[in-house]
Design a protein that fits this description.
By secondary structure, the chain is mainly beta. Helices cover about 10% and strands about 30% of the residues. It contains four helices and ten strands; from the N terminus they run ααβββββααβββββ. Strands 1, 2, 3, 4, 5, 6, 7, 8, 9 and 10 form a ten-stranded antiparallel beta sheet that branches. The radius of gyration is 16 Å and the shape is globular. The two termini are about 30 Å apart. The mean pLDDT is about 95. The structure holds a DNA duplex.
Length: about 220
DNA sequence: CACCCGATTATCT
DNA sequence: GATAATCGGGTGT
């Protein structure tokens, strides 16, 4: 029996709730390659939530524009944007109501299936460096501007999310990183393992130095 | 290993 | 014309 795909209702909740719950789930990328369908997959180990009018760091803060329009549509659609002249960032729209807006930035993934293909896409052999950052994971999973606006909630999607039967037992949160405004809210979520009183953060997260100030959530 | 800085372009004002 | 939800290479310790 295959794991369940995350459907529309999962994404139509407050973005910080969705961001927290996406941690530990699988991302699956179906790819046509040499006449066959190749599946790349991995466990989401780091996300960030972005909101609407109360969140100055969010692309939606300025109101509806051509670029951010997916953040204003229904939950469960892909928002990809190009930044710093080099990198794509992969987001999924999420908010609780039709008059809201928001998205989740997928920041890091622990590679599981299709590792050799990811290494080729990245020109990089080190497993820890394949998808441990938002720009790295789009390259490893071959996600780009053509995916903007795609629905992830059915099996025909090239990109979708799956439940994880063996989900880890802890998620921690930190302040969001790489932003200039609204830097104080704890809307960055990391996968961790709790063993007794000890917390171990997943080693595939990005920017390990910025993980010091965290809370258990 | 930590810090610093340049690259490079779509998007919005 | 300014900005940016980043990355990787270079330098110095």
């Amino acid at each position: 029996m295959t794991a369940k795909i995350l459907k529309r209702p999962f994404f139509e909740r407050d973005s910080h709730v969705v961001a927290k719950e996406l941690v530990g789930k699988y991302l699956v990328r179906k790819l046509g390659r040499d006449g066959k369908i190749l599946k790349l997959s991995g466990i989401i180990v780091e996300t960030e939530a972005y909101g609407y009018i109360d969140d100055q760091a969010s692309h939606a803060f300025i109101g509806l524009t051509k670029r951010n329009s997916v953040m204003f549509g229904r939950g469960g659609f892909i928002y990809v944007y190009f930044t710093y002249g080099n990198h794509y960032c992969f987001n999924i729209s999420a908010h609780a109501s039709a008059v809201n807006a928001g998205a989740i930035l997928i920041r890091a993934i622990e590679p599981v299936n299709g590792v050799e293909q990811m290494k080729e896409f990245r020109s990089e052999n080190e497993l820890l460096n394949l998808a441990s950052g938002p720009g790295k994971l789009t390259q490893a999973f071959c996600i780009n501007a053509k995916h903007n606006g795609c629905d992830v909630t059915n099996h025909n999607s090239d990109i979708y999310f799956q439940e994880n039967q063996n989900q880890s037992n802890a998620v921690i949160c930190t302040k969001r990183i790489g932003i200039r405004k609204d830097t104080d809210r704890y809307w960055r979520f990391l996968l961790a393992n709790k063993e007794g009183d000890n917390i171990y953060i997943n080693k595939y997260v990005s920017k390990k130095k910025e993980n010091q100030d965290y809370k258990i959530c």
